[in-house]
Amino acid sequence: MNMKKLNAALLLLALIFAACATPAAESNEKEKEKPLKEYTGEPVEHVFPDLPYAFDALEPYIDAKTMEIHYDRHHRAYYNNFINAIKGTELENASLEFIFSQMSKLSATIRNNGGGLYNHNLFWEVMAPGGQGEPSEELKNAINRTFGTMDAFKEKFNNAALTQFGSGWSWLLVKEDGSLAVSGTANQDNPLMDTEKVRGTPILGLDVWEHAYYLKYQNRRGDYVQNFWNVVNWDEVNRRYSKAKK
Ligand SMILES: [Fe+2]
């Protein structure tokens, strides 16, 4: 084969390869960009919530400086980053619950910051100065049915918090069938996300990122987790339980 013929053969091979390769590459891209379901609920305006109490209200269990930095820096940053990520997109006025149900199709920016926004919204609300109320009869019965006793439930919840490697959350959640479960999630994930194995509606959550406790407790995550029970707002947990069960 002379050089001219060899070059022509190589060119032909390259063209065949390109013709075969292009659709495959496109199909991989399409795989990554599966269409989102259309949001058909009420339009949501995402707002940065007020903290329901003063920075020092959860002392001595959670110190004022931690609360200030946690709420005003961390939570606010999640909110701002999330708003920037959804601005001008079809998700701009979609609910967080809807967004989480499509999580596997969305970016890490939306996952981390949307999760960070929702999780902290819930976290502030399920705490109150000195704790508030107690589990309702209905919730107590469900906890006893699922975990045996209230203490056994707390142990399981604490264990999820303590064994979460690195940053994350522990949760009490209501599964789709109305039953309760405890789970731990990494980073800013939560049980509403379609990326989670244990899915449902969270009704109690504990932030175990170091930013939530390090100033006061340093590496003693166990003491922080134990003290959390002194500030749980059971009235709010009961309300969320009743709503999630409907
Ligand atoms: Fe946090």
From TrEMBL:
Residues the record lists as binding Mn(2+): 70, 120, 207, 211
Residue span(s) of domain Manganese/iron superoxide dismutase N-terminal: 46-128
Protein name: Superoxide dismutase
EC number: 1.15.1.1
Signal peptide segment: 1-21
Cellular-component GO terms for this entry: cytoplasm
Pfam families xrefs: Sod_Fe_C, Sod_Fe_N
Organism the protein comes from: Natronoflexus pectinivorans
UniProt domain Manganese/iron superoxide dismutase C-terminal: residue ranges: 135-240
Gene Ontology molecular function, alphabetical: metal ion binding; superoxide dismutase activity
Reactions it catalyzes: 2 superoxide + 2 H(+) = H2O2 + O2
PANTHER family for the chain: 37S RIBOSOMAL PROTEIN S26, MITOCHONDRIAL (PTHR43595), SMALL RIBOSOMAL SUBUNIT PROTEIN MS42 (PTHR43595:SF2)
InterPro entries to which the protein is assigned, alphabetical: Mn/Fe_SOD, Mn/Fe_SOD_BS, Mn/Fe_SOD_C, Mn/Fe_SOD_N, Mn/Fe_SOD_N_sf, SOD_C_sf
Family per record: Belongs to the iron/manganese superoxide dismutase family.
Keywords assigned: Metal-binding, Oxidoreductase, Signal
Function: Destroys radicals which are normally produced within the cells and which are toxic to biological systems.
